[in-house]
Amino acid sequence: xxxxxxxxxxxxxxxxxxxxxxxxxxxxxxxxxxxxxxxxxxxxxxxxxxxxxxxxxxxxxxxxxxxxxxxxxxxxxxxxxxxxxxxxxxxxxxxxxxxxxxxxxxxxxxxxxxxxxxxxxxxxxxxxxxxxxxxxxxxxxxxxxxxxxxxxxxxxxxxxxxxxxxxxxxxxxxxxxxxxxxxxxxxxxxxxxxxxxxxxxxxxxxxxxxxxxxxxxxxxxxxxxxxxxxxxxxxxxxxxxxxxxxxxxxxxxxxxxxxxxxxxxxxxxxxxxxxxxxxxxxxxxxxxxxxxxxxxxxxxxxxxxxxxxxxxxxxxxxxxxxxxxxxxxxxxxxxxxxxxxxxxxxxxxxxxxxxxxxxxxxxxxxxxxxxxxxxxxxxxxxxxxxxxxxxxxxxxxxxxxxxxxxxxxxxxxxxxxxxxxxxxxxxxxxxxxxxxxxxxxxxxxxxxxxxxxxxxxxxxxxxxxxxxxxxxxxxxxxxxxxxxxxxxxxxxxxxxxxxx
Length: 500
Known about the structure:
Order of helices and strands: HHEEHHHHHHHHHHHHHHHHHH
Strand order of the largest sheet: 1-2
Structural class: mainly alpha
Number of strands: 2
Shape: globular
Family: Belongs to the complex I subunit 4 family.
Keywords: Chloroplast, Membrane, NAD, NADP, Plastid, Plastoquinone, Quinone, Thylakoid, Translocase, Transmembrane, Transmembrane helix
Subcellular location: Plastid, Chloroplast thylakoid membrane
Radius of gyration: 22 Å
Number of helices: 20
Strand content: under 5%
Distance between the termini: 30 Å
Transmembrane segments: 6-25, 32-56, 76-101, 113-129, 135-155, 167-191, 211-234, 246-264, 276-293, 305-324, 330-353, 374-396, 416-437, 462-479
Membrane topology: Multi-pass membrane protein
Largest sheet: 2 strands, antiparallel
């Protein structure tokens, strides 16, 4: 038993450190930027140290547990703990947030508030991934919403208020279902209410009740993930947000929905999950095709990348619905892989916009001549997104394929049909990504732009791009980096609940 409160420090450090930003001396934005980056680096190093020295990989049980009574009046506990499922997303959060603070350098207006909100998001995200109490999970989930709303409405594009309002309506609407589900599950069952995830995982519910809870949680996570038709807030939000905010949204926020789906819907409600999993697979397959086709029709560069994110989320849904070790491991690999790839593409889209001030693809062209470094990085990361072998996206999608093909739950014909649809989706991905590269970088359009002398990527931007590219290649060549974290936990989830 480890008595030092590692997780509490990891969860609270960013938001407490962020609160001190407002007391820093008024000496321009440089102090604030460096202070924020130092907090992020300290947090990342602390997290890495804790997991490296205090976490046993081959143990599927919850580790580093902390359990403090918080509010005596209604038995509310501060319960934290991690296992193989949460360790990957927590490290991803640290990595992407640190790079997003580096990417936020061009933000000069109200930069104290901007950097504080980024650190508050950081705490909320790590809190969500490490909560072992349902009410605490809900509070951390909500802590995420306000910073995103403010980052959108204050530092977004022309339609920022519209997209911020749409974001808060969708996500707060989903949170209502989450809260009802949390309270319902906590109050049902044992004599006294409990919100402890360990206790709830060993409880059984009547099937009808389990289905009701499952639908409630599914709606909440479907908004965040997003699952069609609850996805329409995402392209608007990405289209208007500053690209450092987009990195956090694509890299981490969407992954919270997938994490909740596995952590709560699969672990707590296994019978309902086995009833709903065929529908999840059908929706996932439709989502891959629909979002890929919609992406092809987008003129706005950031919206095109946003729809490609929605398409890639379809693989996660199918992996979760396959109810196999391979499928679920593939979904977790896709969560991590897309976290890197999505963040990288939005970062490059933002740096391109900083230079040419154009957002519509049909107005662009000829950028390869003026911006060779951006062209190279954009091309490599687009290849990662279209699942080029040797990159993380290829292995993640391939593992999901194997998961659905080897699943014992489904008949042969439906499996062949779903695999066929997924394959069409994988063929559509190169079409919209390569046409995006063609419209941006080839041809002669930019010769007509006034002041057509541009600075290519500077050292800071190259550092951010390469820092994200290295793990994408590392996972593509050696996926055990990620799979070794989650494989025991996945086996425990599948064997405990589905093959009794």
